[in-house]
Amino acid sequence: MTANTMTALAKTKPEEGLWQIEAPVPEIGADDVLIRVNTTGICGTDIHIWNWDEWAAATVPVPMITGHEFAGEIVDMGRNVTGLALGQRCSGEGHLVASDSRQSRSGRFHLDPGTRGIGVNEQGAFAQYLRLPAFNVVPLPDDIPDEIGAILDPLGNAVHTALSFDLLGEDVLITGAGPIGIMAAAVARHAGARNVVLTDINADRLSLAAHVVPSVRTVNVAQEDLHDVARELGLREGFDVGLEMSGNQGALDQMVEALVMGGKIALLGIPPGKSPVDWSRVVFKAITIKGVYGREMFETWYKMIAMLQNGLDVSRVTTHRFSANDFEKGFAEMKSGRSGKVILDWTAT
Ligand code: ZN
Known about the structure:
Bound molecules: zinc ion
Radius of gyration: 20 Å
Order of helices and strands: EEEHHEEEEHEEEHHEHEHEHEHEHEHEHE
């Protein structure tokens, strides 16, 4: 039996901040599971919601329990649920999809136009208990701890982006050394890229990147010329593949310039508003561009768990751990712009 109420972090009024509340434990439907949350990751999305910026105010209904990066265990199941068991450790896909769109019916669930996000449009994971459709559950093997389970959502963004194009033997440029950019660098190395160059202008993030993935070449583009780096690495014609993780217009321009003829770009970073792009450069260099959203359900999850079991190590991208009761400290670290992933532990709540 579970309690009737639980501790959660919620946006309870339309202004800056999040507040710890007592909320009813979610009721589950016939196709849902109830998950006891052990660990959660704080995402950039949660910072937008905390700050209550324009996007958050237009998107998130109040009250809303936030959070979508989690690991925990199944403590209750609806009557239609099969293939899962009480006590199963799990993470899960935070994008809830319907099954009636063309994309869903063709098996491309991540492209369902009606996608709803937990912690954004549906009650989220910053809580002792989370309701989730059984379809979205991803069981965790014993060798993947809850602390990694809590960052599979952003690792999935990194994996989805990095595996958009074949990286074996390729020279890869990644712009933006936030946690997802750093994890993408680790994935690119794991996937067989020859050179991985990761750029930013934030020295703290670049040194974290070098700590997490020692074999990546970090470049502070405020101090070092990317052309010189390419020459130093012996790249005669440029980088083969670009992964844009920053949303920064200058970074995308630099990437287009630095690619080979016929190069490929996967875009995950979100530019602020409409941004000018020199499309003639894209045309004349015959560049392929792919927008990346979320994670493929569930191929990305399959691949990332397989890679984690086969030596991919992103554990050092987590730089801070707090009890969920100290969530304010966790959010302060995230907002400093110097941290890697910040984990909140719910087991003591
Ligand atoms: Zn996230």
